[in-house]
Amino acid sequence: AQKVTQAQTEISVVEKEDVTLDCVYETRDTTYYLFWYKQPPSGELVFLIRRNSFDEQNEISGRYSWNFQKSTSSFNFTITASQVVDSAVYFCALGGNNDMRFGAGTRLTVKP
Amino acid sequence: DSGVTQTPKHLITATGQRVTLRCSPRSGDLSVYWYQQSLDQGLQFLIQYYNGEERAKGNILERFSAQQFPDLHSELNLSSLELGDSALYFCASSVEETRDTQYFGPGTRLTVL
User: Fold this and answer.
1) Strand ranges in chain B using DSSP code E only, listed in sequence order
2) Under a CB-based contact definition with an 8 Å cutoff, are residues B46 and B21 in contact?
3) Which residues contact B40 (CB under 8 A, 6 or more apart)?
4) Residue A75 host element (H or E)
5) Which of A15, A54, A59, B94 is the most exposed place for a label (fewest CB within 10 A)?
6) What is the mean pLDDT of each run of 10 residues along chain B (113 residues)?
7) What pLDDT, in 10s, does the model give residues A54-103?
8) What is the Cα–Cα distance from B87 to B27, expressed in whole angstroms?
9) Under a CB-based contact definition with an 8 Å cutoff, are residues B75 and B82 in contact?
10) Which residues of chain A make contact with B108, given a CB cutoff of 8 A?
């Protein structure tokens, strides 16, 4: 069965701090996708990234970076120099050929 | 504005009733996805359509059904509603069928009384 664990329920940081959101997954599929989504206080969902299981290269997009490690079944998300606008709930998700499972989310609060 | 529209924004109904949620994808997007977000179950993937055909099925109840029409808009039908079906229902769209960059609609908040 597929499972996604986001052990950090809530994280609070001060602006300009770096913060890493952890995501650990379980799957028996050899081909799968990993995702991160953001849900700001306004409630909409925003897609951040999709990573294929065959591509373990880390990805950087501006202040965001993702570290995919198949050996530890983890797909962690780091925000560098956090800003107040980064305050949101972040969801990690795992998708196979058919189904898709989400983690419970990590609520990030960035204080000025 | 993501370009994905969902109607209605809010829906209040009673147990046992049937409702239809509508989603219009971004222009040019062929895939439509439906998700449910509730306090009890969190975020769940329900179903995906690509160019009119069902592509992936998640945790969708038998009381729920969906379809994608030739103009690519999609409808999610929820029947025999229960209190536990109260949730935010999101629709998303993408160009490809492989869950690439998805654009989300604002959601429909369903309240079952």
Assistant:
1) 5-7, 10-13, 19-24, 31-38, 42-50, 53-57, 64-68, 74-78, 87-94, 103-104, 108-112
2) no
3) B84
4) strand A74-79
5) A54
6) 93 97 96 95 94 92 96 97 97 87 95 97
7) 888 888 889 999 999 999 999 999 999 999 999 999 999 999 777 889 99
8) 27
9) no
10) none
Torsions phi, psi of B83, nearest 5? -55, -40
Question: Does any CB of chain A come closer than 8 Å to the CB of residue B58?
Answer: yes
In whole angstroms, how large is the CA radius of gyration of chain B?
Answer: 13
The verdict on a CB contact (< 8 Å) between A98 and B106 is no
CA A107 to the chain's CA centroid = 11
What residues of chain A lie within 8 A of the CB of B101, using their CB? 47, 50
DSSP B62: T
CA distance A106 to A3: 16
Pairing of strands B108-112, B10-13: parallel
The 10s digit of each residue's pLDDT in A80-90 is 999 999 999 99
Smallest CA–CA distance, residue A35 to chain B, in Å, is 9
